[in-house]
């Protein structure tokens, strides 16, 4: 006894991609440092930035960031504020005293009036309040790297 059967598979339409359809990245060489004591936040943001073609350095506080910045050039810093050993505002002040201008994106769960005033005086590129969208944050990173 022979069984006959057939399978009907849907046909797929494969459109040809043009150069304009390929997502553009910022290219190799754009380096971002993410400074945050929340390891999950650092890891998720760096994974997103690396998928966009950026190199990402991580630091769990401002002290570690200072040490890494003494040996690595970065094009942008994303920093939290409340961290052990050295907070984000202290890191920003150190960056502005010891480094040429590096765009900074400030991310914090505490954006009280006093903190905002200090951040504005420090001339950071953008301020995010935690929790924040990693998609929007990575868009601002790309924007800052193309503008600054």
Give an overview of the whole structure.
Strand 1 (31-35), helix 1 and strand 2 (55-59) form a beta-alpha-beta unit. The chain starts with 30 loop residues before the first strand and ends with a helix. The protein has one domain (28-143): Rossmann fold (3-Layer(aba) Sandwich), CATH 3.40.50. It is built from five helices and five strands, in the order E-H-E-H-E-H-E-H-E-H. 27% of the residues are buried. It has helices at residues 39-51, 62-69, 88-98, 113-121, 134-147; strands at 31-35, 55-59, 76-80, 104-108, 126-129. It is 37% helix and 16% strand. By secondary structure, the protein is of the alpha/beta class. Strands 2-1-3-4-5 form a five-stranded parallel β-sheet, sandwiched between helices.
Features:
148 residues; Rossmann fold; five-stranded parallel beta sheet; globular
How many DSSP helices? Answer: 5
CATH superfamily assignment?
Answer: Response regulator
Question: Approximately how much beta-strand content do the residues carry?
Answer: 15-25%
Report strand order across the widest sheet: 2-1-3-4-5
Residue share in helix = 25-40%
Question: How big is the Rg?
Answer: 21 Å
Task: Give unreliable regions as ranges.
Answer: 5-25
- Overall, the morphology is globular
Q: Which structural category do the helix and sheet elements fall into?
A: alpha/beta
Q: Give average pLDDT, whole number.
A: 81
Brief description of this entry?
The chain is an alpha/beta fold. Helix content is 37%, strand content 16%.
Topology record:
Elements: E1 31-35, H1 39-51, E2 55-59, H2 62-69, E3 76-80, H3 88-98, E4 104-108, H4 113-121, E5 126-129, H5 134-147
Parallel strand pairs: 1-2, 1-3, 3-4, 4-5
């Amino acid at each position: 006894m022979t069984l006959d059967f057939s399978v009907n598979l849907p046909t797929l339409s494969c459109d040809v991609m043009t150069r304009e359809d390929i997502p553009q990245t910022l290219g190799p060489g754009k380096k971002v440092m993410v400074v945050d004591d929340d390891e999950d936040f650092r890891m998720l943001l760096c994974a997103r930035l690396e998928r966009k073609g950026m190199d990402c350095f991580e630091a769990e506080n401002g002290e570690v960031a200072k040490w890494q910045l003494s040996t690595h050039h970065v094009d942008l810093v994303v920093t939290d504020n409340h961290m052990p050993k050295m907070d984000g505002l202290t890191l920003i002040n150190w960056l502005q005293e010891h480094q040429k201008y590096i765009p900074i994106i400030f991310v914090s769960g505490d954006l009280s009036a006093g903190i905002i005033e200090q951040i504005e005086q420090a001339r950071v590129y953008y301020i995010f309040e935690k929790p924040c969208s990693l998609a929007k944050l990575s868009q601002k990173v790309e924007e800052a790297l193309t503008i600054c």
